[in-house]
Design brief:
- The chain is an alpha/beta fold.
- The chain has 2 domains: 147 residues, Aspartate Aminotransferase, domain 1, CATH 3.90.1150.10; 237 residues, Aspartate Aminotransferase, domain 2, CATH 3.40.640.
- The chain has 14 helices and 14 strands.
- It has a 7-stranded mixed β-sheet with strand order 2-8-7-6-5-3-4, with helices on both faces.
- The N and C termini lie far apart (48 Å).
Length: 397
Amino acid sequence: MEMSHIAANAKPSATLALNAQAKRMVREGQDVVPLALGEPDFDTPEHICQAAHRAIEAGYTRYTPAAGMPELREAIAAKLRDENELDYAPEQVIVCNGAKQALYMLMLCLVEEGDDVLLPAPYWVSYAAQARFCGARPVAVDTTGNDLRLTADLLQDAVTAASRLLVLNSPSNPTGVVLTGDELRGILDVAARHDLWVISDEVYEKLIYDEAVHVSPAGFGDEALERVITVNAVSKTYAMTGWRIGYAAGPQQVIKAATSIQSNTTSAPNTIAQKATITALTGTQEPVAEMRDAFDKRRRLVVDGLNEIPGVRCVMPEGAFYVFPDCSDLMGRSINGRAIENSLQLCEALLEEALIALTPGSAFGAEGYVRLSYAASTEEIEKALERFVEFVDRLEG
């Protein structure tokens, strides 16, 4: 018997697949440096954990409304108003089981079979999979020839009559690119010209460096508020990946539709995690600044180290906690009789020959690159760089 098209399109995330192999090697006693998965290596701040304990003691162990508890939606609306200059009512906010669920539900609301979803490439791996689940076609908008930055012209060239949705991600996973306000305005002008919905994935907004400034594209006036749906989460900002709290804010009809989907699938997220998230958003932000400072130091360490490796070129990311070096000059070579013709083979060889776990650029729609997460200790990063140098020295051809 045949299965559905959704099942046929369901393939394991490349980031999780390689991480699973790396963990398996660790269990076998191998000293793998795990830099494939995007997860802060910090503990959730103590005041947030204490809020969860208090929630349990106060009896917050029952269902909340499908869209999330009202006080959390109010806190999110206040956060978006005060920090992002976005005027959303609490009724225009939905709390989800992580940003990943929010993104998928929004695609279910906004696209149909045969529609095109425009993805600036490199893009986060799940965008393309989710578009396919909806029966839509993911269309990569190649930015590799423009320092990994999307422009209005690149978007204009990619739009067709089938284009329905644009997914933006700034700061970007996997590149760390932070689009400027001028860049985003130009992109939104193209979206308006072609009547595209826009999802703005902003989960790394607090992790930006140097002179970069985060800009929410929904803030470009009333028309933008009716076109853009803003997605965020507490996962990366507050080291709360396992708490599974994300959210979306947008036009009332979109959020109402997403709430109907959520009410018939997962229902609202974990009640205790929702209570803790209120504290995360409204409490002290000092731990966020401390994590950002640590990531900044690691960012400089890893970029400097990668650019000293022959055949590797890496631009300095402006946000998130990833670097996305161009390793295309290493293709066509081999190690121990193992041919390296693409980024997947390179990452497999790095894992098995050098005990470094990275993610292939092909998973993000950019062949010839790899993604390295610097959400790891300085010692682990230094070890990985030393092993990478030794690996390249051993390449033949």
